[in-house]
Amino acid sequence: MTSSRRQFIRTGLGLAAATSLPLVAGCAAPAPVAPVARSIAPGAFRARLGAATITAVSDGAASSPLADGFVRNATLPQVQQALREAGLPTDRLTIPFTAFVVEHDGRRVLMDAGNGQFGAPTAGRLLANLGAAGIDPRSIDTILISHFHGDHINGLRDRDGTLAFPNARLMVPAPEWNFWTDDARRAAVPGAPSGDTVRRVFRPIAGSVVRFQPDSELVAGVRSIAAYGHAPGHTAFSIASRGQTFAYLGDLTNIAALFVRNPDWAVRFDMDAEAARLTRRRLLEAAVTGDWIVGGYHLPAPGLGRIVRRGSGYDFVPLS
Ligand SMILES: [Zn+2]
């Protein structure tokens, strides 16, 4: 025995280690394996969650100079300070776009559909990145849409009208559909985007779009969660398997360093800022309490992680 080993045992640490080992080895019920996000291709990360597989697939990103007003209720110096604390540039904002594929119970479900041909030149990568990840768009059998802002639905149809996911059943929140197809309601919301995108995407296929009510089971164990505020029918999705929960939060938050950290801040795209703020607080707290693995459309790579409490707000901790 080496002197260091004798020293180790004399201190009692060795004894503690020696006695605890058989207990660990004899433990009958193994704890669920903590999910990790594995890079499977450029722009794609995969995590196992119980019996489900979650793949985060990048649609690229859009970068623009940071302007006053991006956060409605914080000053430019406050926003810059939050970016600085996160180690991000303070003169530009880069907003990532990430869609999610959930495979469970023999189904392949896409959550949100990317910018397609209608976003920044650095966006619209979803189809290419799905291909790199080995996911044929024709194999997607269900698409769940969180809300009708262009960066989430434009990828459904290209300029000449071709459907990107021809075999998928398209499911959208009924409250979102009802709002965007009602010109008077849309016109009554100051700053609401025009209905042009919604008309372009949905009008030719309106008869086949399934409109679901919130807080219901949709497909393969995936449930919808009403998350109104960012848009009138904005909806999150969750799936639980073997004691673990994944929740796709859509646009509950924009850039994590700003809006997960400061859940009371309103991004300028929040259509009802106060409803969005309350929803953000409710679901971020639920994510902590439930130890959810969360995905978010504008969260940083890998787009998957956990929410932890920090000060009066929260933090996004990416899955590694
Ligand atoms: Zn968005």
Describe the protein's architecture and organization.
The chain has one domain (33-318): Metallo-beta-lactamase, Chain A. It starts with a helix and ends with a strand. The strands form 2 sheets. An 8-stranded mixed β-sheet has the order 1-2-3-4-5-6-7-8. Strands 9-10-11-12-13-14-15 form a 7-stranded mixed β-sheet. The relative contact order is 0.15. The model is unreliable at 1-27 (pLDDT under 50). It has helices at residues 3-10, 13-25, 76-85, 126-132, 150-153, 174-180, 183-187, 196-202, 256-259, 273-289; strands at 38-41, 44-49, 52-65, 92-104, 107-111, 142-144, 169-173, 210-212, 217-219, 222-226, 235-241, 244-248, 293-295, 304-310, 313-318. By secondary structure, it is of the alpha+beta class. Bound molecules: zinc ion. Zinc ion is lined by residues 149, 151-152, 251, 297-298. Zinc ion binds at residues 149, 151-152, 251, 297-298.
Fraction of residues in helices?
25-40%
Over all CA atoms, what is the radius of gyration?
22 Å
Query: Separation of termini?
Result: 39 Å
Which of globular, elongated, flat, extended, rod-shaped describes the shape? globular
Task: State the order of secondary-structure elements, H for helix, E for strand.
Answer: HHEEEHEEHEHEHHHEEEEEHHEEE
Give the bound compounds. zinc ion
DSSP helix count? 10
Strand order of the largest sheet: 1-2-3-4-5-6-7-8
Question: What is the CATH class name?
Answer: Alpha Beta
How many E-type strands? 15
| Tally of structural domains | 1
What is the CATH architecture descriptor?
Answer: 4-Layer Sandwich
| CATH evolutionary superfamily | Ribonuclease Z/Hydroxyacylglutathione hydrolase-like
CATH topology: Metallo-beta-lactamase, Chain A
